[in-house]
Write a structure and sequence with these properties.
Elements lengths: L6 E2 L3 E8 L9 E7 L3 E9 L4 H16 L5 H11 L6 E9 L4 E7 L3 E5 L9 E3 L2 E2 L13 E4 L5 E5 L17 H12 L6 E8 L7
Helix pairs in contact: 1-2
Length: about 210
């Protein structure tokens, strides 16, 4: 069994697990985790369908996100929409972590699930879910509206594409390493009939792990 390795950035520690549609060499489900001016951008991208065309659309979306990682999540979706004209298009969920004021701004177009698990389960809202708006980036954008929430060190974000069953939250133990969590989501909740990806990021804040 390979060693579990968690990637550390100044304000995040994260891990990712993915699998391709059976019979396909590449997956149309990709991710991005990249430092930004005020913190870090995390996102999961799902190219429509599967196979080479889906992977091409997803790669183009990730490249657009990387090029504009300091922009707002709404501006990033618009940037991707312009870059993906003529492709199959993608669905995506994005989260921008701001270490200056301990906030996370997130937005979803299509059915890439997002869940925020609080390190302190006694908070009034120990679990929050992203608002997924119908649409396809590159083809048909809905009215864009992002949500902002405060975050604390130890809070865990999980993004999962639609190749993962939505009950994946049941296997999550937020104190576990992010890579172990991502692999557990895929192992127990991947549908096995589509590309699948799970991205897990724990917020460390400016002071590091709690």
């Amino acid at each position: 069994m390979p060693a579990v390795v968690t990637v550390r950035l100044p304000i995040l520690e994260w891990g990712v697990a993915s699998s391709a549609h059976p019979g396909q060499r590449e997956s149309g489900d990709l991710h991005i985790v990249q430092e930004s001016a005020n913190g870090c951008l995390a996102g999961a991208v799902d190219g429509l369908g599967h196979g080479a065309e889906a992977a091409t659309a997803a790669r183009r979306a990730v490249a657009a996100l990387a090029a504009g990682s300091n922009e707002t999540v709404i501006a990033l979706v618009r940037r991707c929409h312009r870059e993906l004209v003529g492709t199959r298009g993608v669905t995506m969920s994005l989260a921008a972590f701001n270490a200056t004021d301990d906030t996370m701004t997130w937005l979803a177009i299509g059915n890439v699930e997002g869940v925020l698990l609080r390190a302190n389960p006694r908070r009034s809202r120990p679990r929050e879910t992203i608002l997924m708006r119908a649409g396809v980036v590159g083809l048909d954008l809905p009215r864009l509206q992002a949500s902002v929430t405060t975050i604390s060190p130890g809070d865990v974000l999980v993004l999962a594409t639609d190749g993962v069953r939505r009950d994946f939250v049941d296997v999550l133990h937020p104190a576990d390493p992010p890579q172990a969590l991502a692999e557990r989501v895929l192992r127990f909740h991947a549908k096995g009939t589509d590309d699948a990806l799970a991205l897990v990021a724990r917020y460390r804040g400016t002071e590091g792990p709690p």
